[in-house]
């Protein structure tokens, strides 16, 4: 990045953001950061941060049909975005930090410090490290104060002056204030802190506050070692010593072994323990769990991620992960990319006189986050019906092309199994290394015709929707639209190539399988598995450019019947 471009961006960033010192919500943000040290808040914030770290940044622009076109590698927008935070590795850590900042106080600052060699250092600074100093901002970076001058439109900007960009999730009632689930839960978190302190005190108080021990007058207790037999009883000293040891060393015998007293037999029945404790001990623990549940509900990710997913199977966990990405990750990623677009990228492109500078954006890609549960098993079943290639099967089961059999291995297998070629027919619609023979399923889980017909309808509906969307993507340029109109929507993917990433990027399958759980319940299949298996089958079918056949269905949904059985 040239120094002139940095200066151009500075005039757009240093004057637009409300400073932390002027922010009426600053004290609440300070409190929010204090609660970051509690396990529940830290777990939530780190989950958001770690998930965002898997996203990638790229330059693109939105077309008239609402799809995103990636910038060519040699475009200035692509070059600028590629250098954010020093490149992909730095961007991963950069997004991780922003995830935590947006989850806790709802706000963070990016400070870009140009270097004399033409490079720049990117820093994320918390609201606690930003302050107003006269007519400028001051950031504390690695313990050192860094002044960020205010913009003066009449003056020539200093090419080495730092640039500050405020990134925040605006509150709906006051746009300049930040918002976050932690800020909205400060009262509940304070109650949780008090209850945790009470539970901690109860845990430590083995004797203190646990009642009064009444003993008959004249009862003698052991004396300290070495003391004369007629000395005063030192019962209180014994109790205090044991109690102090139990608190100081919770794993010592004093914390668990009862105190042994030697008393006359006739006095035992007269010894009485008066307890003054209420039911608050058990109530405090219940209230604390209730508050943890309330905070988990207030967080904008599925509560199961904070409370545990013991009752959720692996298909349900996949569905929850997709929901968490939609609700908790993509909106925050959008906050960061929007700020970088309007306060950094577009001003730089305008200063460089790039045509249509305001069309280009910093975009975020979350496709790497969308892990498919039980994908190897489904890939094996889908491969058996010839819908994906051998290379795709190796990829999804953790192997690479180096594990593929060579010509000698194939010849040996054919010699040992003379009927192999007859049982793996080659069809014109499939690559030479794919088959159309569906695998056998146990008789107990063979799907009935009703489920097969319902799944067939779902698949055809999904392919038709995907085809209609595909007509409005860059995969169908204007010169090919007449040709595309001659092909049914459900088969358009066989004419217009599309990759797996583009299936996600263009939302070709979004909403297409919403009725899958209802159909699964109706015919006794595993609901989560059916939706996941059909989505993977469709994704691979679209990417492979293979035409759909009804004979694919038994293998595609077979794993779900096994799961239900």
List keywords for this structure.
single chain, 565 residues, mainly alpha, 3-stranded antiparallel beta sheet, 22 helices, 13 strands, 46% helix, 11% strand, flat, disordered N terminus
Report on the architecture of this protein.
This protein is mainly alpha-helical and about 575 residues long. The protein has 22 helices and 13 strands. The longest helix is centred in the middle third of the chain and has 38 residues, at about 315-350.
Q: N-to-C terminal Cα separation, in Å?
A: 60 Å
User: What percentage of amino acids are in beta strands?
Assistant: 5-15%
**Class from secondary-structure proportions:** mainly alpha
- As residue ranges, the low-confidence spans are 1-19, 312-318, 419-445
Strands, count: 13
> Over all CA atoms, what is the radius of gyration?
33 Å
The main sheet orders its strands as 2-1-13
Percent helix among the residues?
A: 40-55%
Task: Give me the number of helical elements.
Answer: 22
Shape annotation: flat
Q: How would you state the average pLDDT, rounded?
A: 76
Please outline what is shown here.
The chain has 565 residues and is mainly alpha-helical.
SSE order and pairing:
Blueprint: H1 3-13, H2 26-35, H3 39-52, E1 56-62, E2 68-70, H4 76-82, H5 88-103, E3 107-114, E4 120-125, E5 130-133, E6 136-141, E7 144-148, E8 163-168, E9 170-171, E10 174-178, H6 181-184, H7 186-204, E11 212-214, H8 235-248, H9 265-268, E12 272-274, H10 280-298, H11 304-307, H12 314-351, E13 360-365, H13 375-384, H14 390-396, H15 407-416, H16 420-423, H17 449-470, H18 481-484, H19 500-505, H20 516-523, H21 527-544, H22 553-564
Antiparallel strand pairs: 1-2, 1-13, 3-4, 3-8, 5-6, 6-7, 9-10, 11-12
């Amino acid at each position: 990045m040239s120094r002139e471009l940095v200066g151009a961006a500075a005039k757009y960033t240093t004057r637009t953001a409300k400073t932390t010192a002027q922010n009426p919500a600053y004290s609440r943000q300070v409190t929010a950061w204090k609660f970051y040290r509690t396990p529940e808040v830290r777990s939530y914030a780190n989950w958001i941060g770690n998930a965002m770290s898997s996203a990638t940044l790229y330059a693109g622009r939105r077309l008239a049909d609402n799809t995103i076109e990636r910038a060519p590698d040699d475009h200035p927008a692509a070059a600028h975005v590629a250098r954010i935070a020093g490149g992909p590795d730095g961007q991963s850590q950069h997004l991780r930090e922003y995830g935590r900042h947006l989850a806790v106080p709802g706000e963070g600052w990016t400070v870009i410090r140009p270097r004399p060699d033409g490079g720049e250092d990117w820093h994320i600074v918390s609201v606690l490290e930003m302050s107003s100093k006269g007519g400028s901002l001051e950031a504390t970076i690695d313990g050192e104060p860094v002044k960020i001058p205010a913009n003066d439109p009449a003056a020539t900007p200093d090419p080495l002056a730092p640039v500050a960009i405020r990134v925040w999730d605006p509150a709906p009632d006051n746009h300049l204030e930040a918002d976050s689930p932690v800020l909205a839960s400060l009262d509940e978190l304070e109650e949780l802190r008090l209850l945790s302190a009470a539970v901690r005190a109860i845990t430590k108080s083995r004797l203190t506050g646990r009642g009064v021990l009444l003993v008959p007058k004249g009862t003698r207790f052991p004396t300290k070692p070495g003391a004369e037999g007629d000395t005063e009883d030192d019962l209180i000293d014994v109790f205090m010593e044991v109690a102090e040891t139990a608190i100081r060393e919770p794993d010592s015998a004093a914390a668990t072994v009862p105190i042994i007293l030697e008393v006359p037999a006739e006095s035992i029945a007269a010894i009485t323990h008066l307890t003054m404790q209420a039911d608050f001990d058990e109530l405090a623990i219940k209230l604390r769990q209730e508050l943890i549940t309330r905070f988990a509900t207030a967080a904008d990710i599925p509560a199961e991620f904070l409370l545990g997913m013991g009752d959720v199977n692996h298909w349900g966990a996949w569905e929850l992960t997709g929901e968490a990405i939609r609700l908790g990750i993509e909106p925050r990623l959008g906050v960061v990319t929007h700020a970088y677009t309007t306060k950094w990228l577009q001003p730089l492109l305008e200063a460089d006189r790039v045509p249509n500078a305001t069309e280009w954006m910093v975009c975020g890609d979350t496709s790497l986050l969308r892990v498919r549960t039980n994908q190897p098993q489904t890939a094996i079943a889908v491969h058996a019906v010839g819908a994906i290639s051998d290379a795709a099967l190796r990829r999804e089961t953790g192997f690479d092309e180096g594990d593929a059999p060579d010509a000698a291995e194939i010849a040996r297998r054919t010699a040992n199994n003379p009927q192999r070629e007859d049982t793996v027919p080659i069809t014109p619609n499939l690559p030479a290394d794919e088959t159309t023979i569906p695998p056998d399923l146990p008789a107990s889980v063979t799907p009935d015709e009703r489920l097969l017909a319902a799944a067939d309808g779902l698949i055809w509906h999904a392919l038709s929707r995907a085809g209609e969307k595909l007509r409005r993507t860059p995969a169908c340029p204007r010169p090919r639209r007449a040709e595309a109109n001659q092909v049914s929507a459900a088969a358009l993917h066989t004419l217009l190539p599309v990759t797996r990433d583009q299936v996600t990027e263009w939302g070709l399958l979004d909403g297409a399988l919403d009725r899958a759980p209802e159909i699964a319940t109706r015919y006794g299949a595993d609901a989560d598995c059916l939706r996941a298996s059909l989505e993977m089958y469709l994704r691979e079918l679209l990417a492979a450019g293979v035409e759909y056949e009804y004979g694919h269905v038994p293998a595609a949904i077979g794993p779900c019947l096994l799961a239900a059985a």
